[in-house]
Each structure stands twice: as C-alpha cells, then as structure tokens.
Design brief:
This protein is α/β, with parallel strands linked by helices. It is 44% helix and 14% strand. The protein has 3 domains: 157 residues, Rossmann fold (3-Layer(aba) Sandwich); 210 residues, TIM Barrel (Alpha-Beta Barrel), CATH 3.20.20; 65 residues. It starts with a strand and ends with a helix.
Amino acid sequence: MSKILFTHSYFYRFDEKQWKTAQPYPPYGTMYAAAFMRENGYDVELFDTGLRAAAAEILPVLSRSKPDYLVIYDDGFNYLTKMCLTRMREAAFQMAKWGKEQGCTVIVNSSDSTDHAAEYLANGADFIILGEGEITLRELVAAIEAGAADFSQILGIVMANSTIPNAPRPVLHHLDDLPDPAWDLVDIGAYRDIWMHTHGYFALNLATTRGCPYKCNWCAKPIYGNRYNSRSPERVAGEIEMLIEKFGVNQFWMADDIFGLKPGWVQRFRDIVQEKNLQFTYKIQSRVDLLLKEDTIDALAASGLRQVWVGAESGSQKVLDAMDKGTKVAEISEATKLLKSKGIEVCFFLQFGYLGETKADIEATLKMVEELQPHDIGISVSYPLPGTKFYEKVKNLLGEKQNWTVSDDLDMMYPATFPPAYYRRLHRLVHKRFRLRQGLNEWVKFLKTGNGNFRKAFKALYYAPAAQLDAWRLQRLERSST
C-alpha cells in the first residue's frame, strides 16, 4: 500500500496578524483530500503546518514516515490561502524540495500554485493539480502506480516537463459522494488550547458548499470556480452532531464563500437542527441581497446563526457597480437592520482603493459604517489576483511586487487615487473611529442602565485623541498627493 503524506502551506505563526488574533482553524480542504484518498485504499498521514513554528519541522516526519508521495494540498476553504501570500509560497517551495530529496513524488494543489505553476515546478513539484483536487489526485496517483509514462489525458494537471496545462477538470456536483474530512488526523486539542486560552471558548470550521456563482470582478476563484454546489443539509447536520459529541465544540465557522444560496437549503437545515435538538451557534459569510430573500434570516436565526459577515465593500453605489458587486447600498442598510432586529451580529468587509474611487466615495463608506454601526469590520485595499477581471484592468500598472507577503500587508499593488501611505493611514483611522464609536455606545449604556462593557468604554479614552491624530495625518497625506 502506497503512503501519502499530506501537508499544506499556511502557517499561522508566519502571519503575525492572524497569530495574534488566535482564531486558528484546521485545514478543512486538506482533511477532505486525505479522507478521500484513504477511502480509496491509500495509507495517509497529515503534517498540519497550521500551528507549526517552521517548515523544517516536516523533515523528521519525512524521515520517519518515508512516504511515496508528498502532497501539499492547501485548504481551499480558508480565505487566507486564496490571498496567495509569498511567505507561505516560500514555505511550500522548501517543503517540496525536501520532499524530492527524500525521494517523494511531490504534488501540489493550491490557489497560488494554480496561478504560478511554473514557479512551483521549478522548486521541486512534479505535478500541479489545477482547481478542485480530489478526483484528479486519485487518477494521478493511480496512473503513477500503474507505471504510466503519459499523463496528458489526466484532466486538471500541469507536469514538470511541461508548463502547458492539460484540459481542465469539471467540478464535482454531488458533494455527498465524498467522505467527511479526516478529523482524526488533526491534533484538535492544540487548536482547542489556543482558543480557550485567548477567548474562553472553542470553535471549529466546516463547509457546506463549494464555489460561488456571483461575479465580483476582484474575487479570485482558482479552486472551485464560478459554479456552486452544496452538500445536503442532512450531511452537514450529521457532521456537526459528530463534532459536538466527539470534541465538545458548540461554535462553528461556516467557511463557505456564500452560505445557504440554494433555495430551501437553510429552511431544511433549520428543521434538521431542531429535529436533532442540536445546540450550537455559528457564523457565516453572505450577501445582503441573498439575506433579504423570503424568510432566510428567520430560518438562519432559528438554526443558531450568531454572526454574519457581509461583503459591504463600499458605501458608494458607483464603486459597487464598478466592482460588478450586484448589490445596492440600500440593501446593506436594510439587511443590517433586519439582522440586528433578530439578535444577529452583523460584520462588514470593507475595501478601499478600487479604481476610480474618490474622496467622496471614501466618505460615503465612512458614513455608512457610522450610521449602521456593525458589530465588527474587516478592512482591505483592492488586491488584484490573476484570473480576475480586476487583474486584467490593472496588470499593466503592477510593479515587481504582485502578491502580499502576509495578510496584513495591505500594500497597494497599482497606482490608486491616493498614495499607498494614505490607505495605510485610512485603515488605522477607520478602525479607531469604529472602536471609538463602540466605546461611546458603552458609556451611554452605563449612563442609562448602569451596565456596559467597561473595557470598550475605557478604550474610548485612547481612541478619541488617536483618531484625531490619524485624521490630521490623513489630511496631510491627501494634500501632498494633489
């Protein structure tokens, strides 16, 4: 029986912001592939890099395990891997080279290797799997085992002796045909310890879908593409039930690009959760227009939804239209108010620096945040990744650096309306104004009811002058750029 050592290239410790946040999740997509290959008769092991301190920690594992194959299979459900961060690319190159030195056939599947196959092949990989990987991996390993010399008919790969990709592989439609991810291969206790030490509770991740049919022109989809396929509510509820029973977890992050898009899915999910009497809460990513359909929010709330992150992106309709976002500013407001009325926390993804964005557009976004007061915000600048319409618009404007090093890089990769320093300062200012507003709201609670979050209220004393200072610095940067 051939042995496959699975790993992936996202190291939380290499990404200071994410390590400090201390909300690590196991590599769900990697665990899926490992479970699938195990079901097909292979001896599998997982070297989970998520909590490791160095790529070199794989060396004793390679020496002990002596695998026939080293498969660097990134978690396609983790948005951090979709960012194609160069710090993680370097780690993948190191592991691929060490795998070759140990005599392994090295196979890589990731967003970054799909975009930069030639670089991975030049750094030790024998094959790159493009897109969704399970079926391709099975066919590829079977062909290697059979002594094949010609791999040209295997869909969805690039080979070391050719940088020309084979024909693409269609995505899977019947996701229930796959086994549940191999949770037994992960040290869940190590993840639990970090969560409990920092937050006092433990959360795990899972996914109910693959892909996204919407066409936001800056969104890269190199793994699952523009198609959208769902697991059944029964299978998802069954996995949740198992995780609750086995690991004592009752909070989940649904890692779908868009949760609950299939008509009737969230309603059926609610019914099964209630029939099983499952007690848990979860958070999702969704779209404001989708949330406003029929009784979606009611069904989500009844099944345990605690928090939703929406791609608000901008308070300017002009910018949303330029992004091909397909949503309206009015829908952001309506969905936010409705979610709040159901006791659900609403969080905004915000994006600055899109082509053509003006000071007035930025002010519209700041006003939207001030008026709607989301529970939390995540701020980025527009980031062009290969395969997107946005990348095609700006590719001739890009400099030598074309990927962020870590997730908090926030470097402008092309000339925007304002210089890069402006957007870095804007990022700080928006966060400080947001935290200041939260703190002031807590002071109001103290005055009205005698109750409130003292920590948030006290921090307002810092954020008030700090925000003023950042506003002054931002004005200077604005003036110097005109």
